[in-house]
Amino acid sequence: MESNLTDRATRMPEVSPDDVWGDVVGFDFDEPAMGSALPPKRNRSEKPSSTAVGGRNEPLRIDLPPQYQPNSANDRPSHGLEVQEINGSVLRLTPEESENPRMPRQIAFHERQPCPKGSRSSGGETREWGRAKKQSAVWILGTSVAVATMVVGTLMLLPMINESNAARPSPGQTDLVLDPEEALNDSGSLRDMLAQQTEAERIYTIFASALTPDDILPLLRDSSKVTPLVRAGKRPPTLSGNQRLQGHSDWGAYEKDGHTYGILKGALPDHSPFNAYFVISGGILLMDWKASTAYGTASFEELEQKLGNPDEIRCWISPSDFYTLAFPEHEYQSYQLVSPDQCKAVWCYGRRGEAANAALGGIFKAGGILAPKTDLEKVTLRLSPGPADGLPNQWLIVELLHKDWICP
């Protein structure tokens, strides 16, 4: 019966009669051997014996027979494994000696040459090296006086330098001299106008809340001339009841072409802006109705269709570069006219070389280092229809009536 202690998975194949233990040829099994020798070949009839201990089979123990176990260290076979211990020592080679011996190094001392007394090369080797040197009071005082003299002299020469670089009038320019009496009168009129803010607010409040034209005619400048226009305007009141102007109003006094006037700027209760013009006539503050309402003999809706009377148009103006065959650039200067409320616009052209175009050019003229102005400016113009082949919204400038909306 085969032992149940054998492992079927690792079981070696059966030994055939032709198998030869070639590695033990010439080996003497009578001599004790180390673990490197194999045991003698077993007969096929022999089976491993097993003894039951406590109802269990004892494990199989594989060991060398007693005859192959050495009894002492002297009994070890001579053909056993040779063990060499590595202890970390390094085998060093003996350096070879040269046949030609080296010449011994010879050191020669060279004494340093003495430096002459007072030489700069010895400044860093003295005992005073690294210590702050005290300057004499005379030297400090002299330096201060020299610096002060230089600064004062430069400041004294500065006006002479600026005078040589100052701009001088070109040929053809005349020096303007302000008459002291005229300047005093102008400043007095501006001062009187600045003191009229309260009265200007009162007048405009009456104007904005008037129910009939008769309520405002006594407060207007040149009332006899503007009465037909005021009555034909049919303007409804913008203030009712106890309403007042919205917020704080701005008041300013201006002088243009020898004429002094004031402008009241603010907002109505519906937040719409207003600009009211005032003048002093006979010691009384009056409102200029045409300038305050931006009156024009034709509306911009009519000007867009080449309709209406263009004799007196109040608008904003700015230079433009829009040209057509009817208004070529070499013959006309292009401008854009914007309505007083800045909602509509038309094109107008000034003929080069004429007085109207020259006057408009003075408003937008450029200086030596300043670019031409392109902002909107207030003007009052007289227009005329353009050529038949022009666009409906193209007009010709005939005359610049005023550089603002108020006439002198």
Care to describe what's here?
The protein is an alpha+beta fold and 408 residues long. Helix content is 21%, strand content 19%. The protein is built from 7 helices and 11 strands. It has helices at residues 137-165, 180-194, 197-209, 223-233, 289-293, 300-304, 355-363; strands spanning 52-53, 56-57, 246-256, 259-267, 273-281, 284-288, 313-319, 332-338, 345-351, 377-385, 394-402. The strands form 3 sheets. Strands 7-8-9-11-10 form a 5-stranded mixed barrel. Strands 3-4-5-6 form a 4-stranded antiparallel beta sheet. The termini are far apart. Residues 50-55 and 171-175 have low confidence and may be disordered.
User: How widely separated are the two ends?
Assistant: 146 Å
Number of discrete helical segments: 7
Largest sheet: 5 strands, mixed, barrel
**Helicity range:** 10-25%
Elements, N to C (H/E):
EEHHHHEEEEHHEEEHEE
Low-confidence stretches are 50-55, 171-175
Q: How many individual β-strands?
A: 11
Computed structural class: alpha+beta
The largest beta-sheet arranges its strands as 7-8-9-11-10
Instruction: Provide the gyration radius in Å.
Output: 62 Å
Strand percentage: 15-25%
The coarse overall form would be elongated
User: What is the overall pLDDT average?
Assistant: 76
TL;DR?
This protein is of the alpha+beta class and 408 residues long. The protein contains seven helices and eleven strands. The strands form three sheets. A five-stranded mixed beta barrel has the order 7-8-9-11-10. A four-stranded antiparallel beta sheet has the order 3-4-5-6.
Helix-strand blueprint:
Elements: E1 52-53, E2 56-57, H1 137-165, H2 180-194, H3 197-209, H4 223-233, E3 246-256, E4 259-267, E5 273-281, E6 284-288, H5 289-293, H6 300-304, E7 313-319, E8 332-338, E9 345-351, H7 355-363, E10 377-385, E11 394-402
Parallel strand pairs: 9-11
Antiparallel strand pairs: 1-2, 3-4, 4-5, 5-6, 7-8, 7-10, 8-9, 10-11
